[in-house]
From TrEMBL:
Occurrences of domain POTRA (ranges): 25-92, 93-173, 176-264, 267-345, 348-422
InterPro entries (UniProt xref): Bac_surfAg_D15, BamA/TamA_POTRA, D15-like, OM_assembly_BamA, POTRA
Protein name as annotated: Outer membrane protein assembly factor BamA
GO biological-process terms attached to the record: Gram-negative-bacterium-type cell outer membrane assembly; protein insertion into membrane
Subcellular locations according to the entry: Cell outer membrane; Membrane
GO-annotated cellular components: Bam protein complex
Transmembrane segments: none
PANTHER family: OUTER MEMBRANE PROTEIN ASSEMBLY FACTOR BAMA, SORTING AND ASSEMBLY MACHINERY SAMM50 PROTEIN FAMILY MEMBER
Subunit structure: Part of the Bam complex.
Family from the record: Belongs to the BamA family.
Organism of derivation: Zoogloea oleivorans
Length: 763
């Protein structure tokens, strides 16, 4: 006959109760009843007694508490049948599936991942309390999107083998819109000026895309901080936000936000001092101070000063330097004095440099770009320089650095570089389209990080109507450990531009060359090259007279020994998504007098990026080209410069600006020229709604340029101008560029082209 020793839940709560005491005994056997999914061995592992051992009331209480603590069971009972322990269990059901109905705002898989973090997931034990937390988490996600009218109904369906299915039926409703944002208490600045600082807005033309008219607590917090910064950067040290009220209408469709502020008085800086341990000469640190006595108080200047001093100490090896600005406020005179207390801490050195995220790129490719060495003193400038150099490689979308302290050491840190690799192979297609011309295509396939070695190889294959090309190029950027590069090129190229708006002729070229690059400074390189080229030319009755005369004078086949020399300086912050820095490049190609042709062709480009923060930047670009024959030889016409189209002056058809002529068929065609001038100004800004995603950028551009022939006088009045909107996106399927340009100056004979694009496929 069985006798109950401890009833399930009561026993778990009142294990100290002496009412059901029993005499200890030696266990002859243990049986487990009521389990369907749980293995008996799992239950045995939680029991504090085994067969042959003595079983007591304390061990029974301990066993029940332990089995309940697993969360696997709703009820636990321990019964005794003579000297046999019988463990009777009532299992909790397991979750067989989690499903959603009516979800549009979120990705279902992302939601499942989020609910898993609160304990609700397939194959886990079903718990009603966990389900309630999951419902609250799901509702919180919708509230963060401004969907305050969301209704969530949860259904738990019993299934075979003690399992359940959990279904969330969601009626999302409409997102609540911000109908009004008010600022109360402002006297110095107009409310409109303050509201322009906010990312949250009332409904407008583009808010359907940006969602800026949907309330978000994090966004409001960011807007409040922007408002605070606005006042503190204009001297209002006592500025405060007294209250923030967010109200929603009963139908949960309209939201009203009211901020009550106190502007306070405007303060000026009365004095600035440095104090503390000066491991760097104080005169040098004084130069880093961004505010002076008599200036209006600007909080950003205080922040910039502390950062500049910390960075300077970091460059000297003090990685954990601490700089604090202590204000002394005189409310009567409305003045504030600052003392910057400098605590350099201990000087540290870098123990190890580690890389993560480079699944394809070899470690040595990254390591050779570093300017911070292992075992050397910590140098903040060298670390930042290393990050910039890695970013310029073009292999990564993102590069981050962390410098954690080494456990158990006070003077060592590790430098951990984490990279996010991007596709470095491209199948590029270039295209232009207009109502009067056919689509023009070109293609190339390249890999800038061949097998993760950092070497670059490009195979250009073009079977189009205009260009038939096959060219193979290879570059090893680190032929020597010092960064001397070597590369070679082999090409065969046929050009038939008769379907374009340029002069009619055909050319066929074959050649090969080798080139070297040598670093002369941290950001500067010089390049040398030598190549052999043979070009055959065919002209027609419709070809322009200068082309025909050239062939009659120098023949229809020309050999050239081409020497090239170039210099480049790259101080941009990123190769893929630049926002600041300078890029300069000068090159010259000389056809030496060893073979047939004799000419000089030079080009200079200067590009300047001005950052405005938050992904906004202005790019200014200038490009000048000049070419001329020498020693009684003319410049080959197939070496002429052209302008117009993407890459020069958008809004005009490709290669149509400059000297032109009318052929025998009545078509106006471009001749090109030996002098070219291009200028571009482009203001880049993030795509609305893209957040921190840098891969999509919009830009407003203004282009200018022209090409002049050898007999033309260079005049500013010849320049053509255009403006428009451009969009660039490093998409998962490749780089995309679109421009919508408007020609601002159109002279008779000019051919315009409003829409132009360039697209590619990444592999």
């Amino acid at each position: 006959m069985k006798s109950k020793l401890l009833p399930g839940v009561i026993a778990a709560l009142f294990v100290a109760s002496p009412a059901l005491a029993f005499e200890p005994f030696v266990v002859k056997d243990i049986r487990v009843e009521g389990i369907q999914r749980t293995e008996a061995g799992t239950v045995f592992s939680y029991l504090p007694v085994k067969v042959g051992e003595q079983f007591s009331e304390d061990k029974a209480s301990q066993a029940i508490k332990t089995l309940f603590a697993t969360g696997f069971f709703k009820d636990v009972r321990i019964e005794v049948d003579k000297e046999v322990i019988v463990v009777v269990l009532d299992e909790r059901p397991a979750i067989s599936q989690v499903d959603f109905v009516g979800i549009k705002e979120f990705d279902k898989e992302a939601l499942k991942k989020g609910l898993k973090e609160v304990g609700l997931a397939e194959s886990r034990i079903f718990d009603r309390a966990v389900l309630e937390r999951a419902e609250q988490e799901l509702k919180r996600q919708y509230l963060s999107k401004g969907l305050y009218g969301v209704q969530i109904t949860t259904t738990v369906t019993p299934l075979e083998r003690n399992r359940v299915g959990v279904n969330f039926n969601v009626v999302e409703g409409e997102a609540a819109k911000i109908r009004q944002i008010s600022v109360i208490g402002n006297q110095v600045f107009k409310e409109k000026e303050l509201l322009d600082l906010f990312s949250l807005t009332t409904p407008g033309l583009m808010t359907w895309y940006s969602k800026s008219d949907q309330y978000s607590k994090p966004k409001l917090s960011a807007d409040i901080e922007a408002l605070r910064s606005f006042y503190l950067n204009r001297g209002y040290l006592d500025f405060s936000i007294d209250s923030t009220q967010v109200s929603i209408t009963p139908d949960k469709k309209d939201i009203y936000i009211t901020l009550s502020i106190t502007e306070g008085e405007k303060y000026t800086v009365s004095d600035v001092k440095l104090a503390g341990t000066m491991v760097v000469p104080e005169q040098e640190l004084q130069k880093l101070v961004k505010l002076k006595a008599g200036d209006t108080f600007v909080r950003d200047s205080v922040t910039a000063t502390t950062k500049a001093i910390s960075d300077r100490l970091g460059n000297a090896g003090y990685a954990f330097a601490n700089v604090n600005a202590a204000p002394e406020v005189d409310k009567v005179k409305r003045e504030v004095a600052f003392t910057f207390f400098v605590d350099p801490g201990r000087r540290v050195y870098v123990r190890k440099i580690n890389f993560a995220g480079n699944a394809r790129t070899r470690d040595e490719v990254l390591r050779r770009e570093l300017r911070q060495m292992e075992g050397a003193w910590y140098d903040g400038e060298a670390l930042n320089r290393s990050k910039v150099r890695l970013d310029r490689l073009g292999y990564f979308d993102e590069v981050t650095i962390e410098t954690p302290a080494v456990a158990g050491s006070t003077d060592q840190v590790d430098a951990n570089f984490t990279v996010k690799e991007r596709a470095t192979g491209n199948l590029m297609l270039g295209a232009g389209f207009s109502s009067s011309e056919k689509v023009i295509l070109s293609a190339s396939i390249s890999q800038q990080n061949l097998f993760g070695t950092g070497n670059a190889m490009t195979l250009q294959v073009n079977t189009g109507k205009i260009n038939k090309t096959i060219a193979l190029s290879f570059t090893n950027p680190y032929w020597t450990i010092d960064g001397v590069s070597v590369g070679w090129d082999i090409y065969q190229r046929n050009v038939d531009p008769t379907s374009l708006s340029v002069a009619t002729y055909k050319s066929s070229s074959i050649g090969a060359g080798v080139r070297f690059g040598y670093p002369i400074a941290e950001d500067d390189r010089i390049n040398f090259g030598l190549a052999v080229d043979q070009t055959s030319i065919k002209v027609y009755d419709s070809s322009p007279a200068p082309y025909v005369n050239f062939v009659n004078t120098f023949g229809d086949s020309a050999k050239s020994l081409l020497a090239t020399i170039g210099w480049a300086r790259d101080r941009r912050d990123s190769f893929v998504y630049p926002t600041s820095g300078v890029f300069q490049r000068a090159s010259m190609e000389i056809a030496t007098p060893v073979l047939d042709m004799r000419y000089v062709r030079g080009n200079y480009q200067h590009q300047y990026w001005i950052p405005f923060g938050g992904g906004y930047s202005l790019m200014l670009n200038g490009d000048v080209g000049f070419a001329q024959g020498y020693d009684g030889k003319e410049l080959p016409f197939y070496k002429n410069f052209y302008a117009g189209g993407i890459g020069s002056v958008r809004g005009y058809q490709q290669s149509t600006l400059g000297p032109r002529y009318t052929d025998s068929l009545g078509y106006v065609r471009s001749l090109g020229g030996n002098r070219r001038l291009i200028g571009n100004a482009e203001y880049y800004f993030p795509m609305p709604g893209s957040g921190k995603d840098k891969s999509m950028r919009l830009s407003l551009f203004a282009d200018a340029g022209y090409v002049w022939g050898a007999d033309d006088r260079i005049q500013a009045s010849d320049l053509r101008y255009s403006t428009g909107l451009a969009f660039s996106w490093s998409s998962p399927v490749g780089p995309l560029k679109f421009s919508l340009g408007q020609a601002l100056k159109k002279v008779e004979g000019d051919k315009t082209q409003k829409f132009q694009f360039q697209l590619g496929t990444v592999f």
